[in-house]
Amino acid sequence: MPTLPNPARFALAGNARFTLVSQVTQTRFTYKVKASEDNATMHFVSVLTGPDNWSNYSYLGFIRRGVYFHGGQKARIGKEAPSAKAFDWFWRHLMAGKDTLSSLVEVHHCGACGRCGRPLTVPESIESGYGPECRGKL
Predict the structure, then answer these.
(1) How many CA atoms lie within 13 A of 127 on its CB side?
(2) Does the global pTM surpass 0.85?
(3) What pLDDT score does 44 carry?
(4) How confident is the model at residue 2 (pLDDT cuts 50, 70, 90)?
(5) Where does the chain show beta strands of DSSP type E?
(6) Is residue 64 part of a domain?
(7) Count of domains in the chain?
(8) Owning domain of residue 34
(9) d(CA 68, CA 64)
(10) What pLDDT digit, counting tens, does each position of 92-108 carry?
């Protein structure tokens, strides 16, 4: 799985799936961040909770104007769950521009374009996380 060069841009591209791997504990969680269809500044965050990597995601929260919020009562995963804490920590550090982030966590895309979700097959696309058509639309 390739490490993403710009995880914030990838996550907010519109239809991103990525895995965070802690370099300290080797714990990993896979997330899906999907743009709202009616609000360009809102993205919904879900975490993989089942065996199907494409459909077994549970709602976690949302990102609005670059700030992550837990989904409260609508969230299927509690705020204190390890996967919720991991995403909150990651997003706060990412938005704060922490230099140490890359030494603490790896961010890998799941082989699909961060914008449209189609499988990536070209080496350049696999490296960047975007297909050739979508790369030009970012």
Answers:
(1) 3
(2) yes
(3) 97
(4) low
(5) 15-22, 28-35, 42-48, 57-64, 67-70, 105-109
(6) yes
(7) 1
(8) 7-135
(9) 7
(10) 999 998 777 888 999 99
